[in-house]
Design a protein that fits this description.
22% strand, two-stranded antiparallel ribbon, single chain, ten-stranded mixed β-sheet, alpha/beta, 416 residues, elongated, 10 helices
Length: 416
């Protein structure tokens, strides 16, 4: 029988258990043998005043919505479990931690099928310490399960796919009993025992979760892995890189992808330890406009103070804003750059050229372009000034009468 534990960031282990009654027995259906359905009829459309239509019930930014499935796709070690828990604590407390605003103080159920409950307690405690939470901030609205509570809603064999109606029924009963607003299943692959690459089988599992969300009015989030990375793919995952069949992406109208910071981005942002930073990309948004800006998070290390030398250290997903290459620069600095470029008739546009304009720009601003961060910043500055028209690219013959791309002054800046 399914049991879910109310949890707090400070005292998860002492929480009481709830025991909802099962409501259905296990049933079997085979691929290609559809269950009986109601008579198919065409429904006449009745026009309604748009003002009378109910609004969508968004629970958390534009990522979690009642009666729908949401999906988070990420490679291993990217921070997806930390972000999922931070999301839950944000919804439970009604606070905006990483850029998504909850609809209020919600009731959340987080089920991690890979880690023991005590490890999840550490993560919740670390989140509480970093964001300054106490037990009263949660007040019985957070429910936690670890891998000790097994879950398999579907299996497959030669006869077809078996959907465990008892397991689904007990989950539904628990959602209704505890009035759960948002359920998070982490990871999706551990919630079933069907072939990952079988799109029909995976579609049946994803549709079972989607149907559960629809029946209960709950938002269901599936945390999913990406397929094994190819060389050089870091920072370049999208929804199509989800592990196994594409059905989960198809079933979820809202999906996001987490990408660990790549080497080029680390150079551009002058960041060390890039693997502790990840980007949250809007991969699919059928119910809302795509996000207008990329969001970054940093796995900030938190000491739990539960042993010698600070005890266990846990990474907590926190918002992070990349440094702006133009920070600290004024119109007077741009004028100095323009004067230096105007005085050098051999400012080549290509970064690999020996006479690259970046060397002139760097020298005028006191930036060391021989370092990766310095070179990355200069490239960003030049790109920005080209876009604004302060600099421009012209093609003309070089000393050997070969046509090359050069950088010259565009529109001169007017200083205060």
């Amino acid at each position: 029988m399914l049991r879910i534990a109310p949890a707090s960031p400070l005292d998860v282990a002492d929480a009481a258990w709830a025991q909802p009654e099962p409501i259905k027995a296990t049933g079997r259906f085979a691929s290609g043998s559809p269950a009986p359905v109601a008579r198919i009829e065409a429904a006449p459309f009745v026009w309604r005043d748009p003002a009378s239509l109910p609004t969508r019930q968004w629970l958390y930014g534009h990522h979690r919505i009642r009666k729908f499935l949401s999906l988070t796709v990420a490679p291993g070690g990217a921070g997806k479990s930390s972000l999922a828990l931070v999301d839950c604590l944000a919804m439970v407390t009604g606070r905006d931690f990483v850029g998504d605003r909850p609809a209020g103080k919600l009731r959340c159920w987080y089920w991690n099928l890979e880690d023991p409950l005590e490890e999840i307690e550490r993560r919740v405690a670390a989140i509480g310490m970093h964001y300054g939470l106490a037990a009263e901030d949660i007040a019985g609205r957070l429910f936690i399960n670890g891998r000790d509570m097994k879950l398999t809603i579907a299996t497959a064999d030669r006869e077809g796919i078996t959907l465990d109606d008892r397991a689904v029924g007990e989950i539904e009963a628990a959602i209704r009993e505890h009035r759960i607003d948002a359920l998070t299943v982490d990871p999706f692959v551990a919630s079933h025992r069907v072939q990952e690459n079988d799109n029909v089988a995976i579609a049946a599992v994803a549709e079972a979760w989607a149907a559960l969300a629809d029946r209960t009015g709950c938002s269901v989030e599936l945390v999913h892995h990406t397929r094994k990375a190819s060389a050089g793919i870091a920072g370049a995952y999208d929804a199509s890189d989800a592990r196994g069949a594409s059905a989960p992406v198809s079933a979820a109208p809202v999906a996001r992808v987490l990408n660990v910071m790549g080497e080029e981005e680390a150079t551009k942002f002058n960041v060390e330890g890039r693997r502790a930073y990840f980007r949250v990309d809007d991969a699919k948004s059928n119910l809302a406009p795509p996000a207008s800006a990329t969001r970054w998070c940093h796995l900030t290390s938190v000491d739990l103070c539960n042993g010698p030398n600070g005890g266990d250290r846990v990474g907590v997903a926190t918002p992070w804003t990349p440094p702006d290459a133009f920070d600290g620069l004024s119109s007077a600095d741009l004028l100095r750059v323009q004067e230096a470029v105007a005085a050098d008739s051999n400012c080549r546009a290509h970064p690999q050229a020996a006479a690259w304009a970046g060397h002139t720009v760097a020298a005028s601003l006191g930036i060391d372009a021989q370092t990766k961060p310095g070179r990355g910043r200069v490239q960003t500055l030049i790109a920005g000034w080209l876009a604004s028209g302060a600099l421009k690219v012209v093609h003309r013959p070089d000393g050997r009468r070969e046509t090359r791309a050069f950088i010259e002054v565009g529109q001169w800046v007017v200083t205060p």
